[in-house]
Amino acid sequence: MARSVKKGPFVDTHLARKVRDVNASGEKRVIKTWSRRSTITPDMVGITFAVHNGRKFVPVFVTENAVGHKLGEFAPTRTFHGHSGDRKGKVEEGQGAPAAPRAAPGAAPGAAPGGKA
C-alpha cells in the first residue's frame, strides 16, 4: 500500500542526517547504510550509497531518475543463476542442424521448393 502524500516520503532520521552533513560539507563520500526502506529524495541526487543486501554492500549512485524509489530497489538480495534448462530442445553434440530442402531441378533460383510458385 502506498504511503500518504500528507506524511511525505519516509527517510530514516540517521540517513537524513548523514545526507545533510555530506551536502553541507560538499565532499563526495560513500554513505554506508542498511536502510533499504528509505525513499530517495531530491537532496540525495549525486551521492553514492553503499546499500546492504544481506551479504555485502552494493554501491548505488543516485540520479534524478531514482527520486521517489526506495534504496533497496537498486540492491538486489537474490542472485539469479539461470533456469535448469530445456534439455529436450538442445541439439546433441556431433549432429548439425537439419539441411534446408532443395529446390526442384530446373527451377529458378530463389523459387519455392517443389517448383510451385
Write a concise synopsis of the structure shown.
The chain is low in regular secondary structure.
How are the elements arranged and paired?
Layout: H1 13-25, E1 31-33, E2 48-52, E3 57-61
Parallel strand pairs: 1-2
Antiparallel strand pairs: 2-3
Beta strand %: 5-15%
Tertiary shape: elongated
Termini separation comes to: 61 Å
Q: List SSEs in N-to-C order.
A: HEEE
Enumerate the strands of the largest sheet in spatial order, edge to edge or round the barrel. Answer: 1-2-3
Total count of helical runs of at least 4 residues: 1
What does this structure look like?
The protein is mostly loops. It is built from one helix and three strands. It has one helix spanning 13-25, and strands spanning 31-33, 48-52, 57-61. A three-stranded mixed sheet has the order 1-2-3, with helices on one face. A hairpin with a 4-residue loop joins β2 and β3 (57-61). The longest helix has 13 residues, at 13-25.
What labels describe this entry?
117 residues, little secondary structure, three-stranded mixed beta sheet, 1 helix, 11% helix, 11% strand, elongated
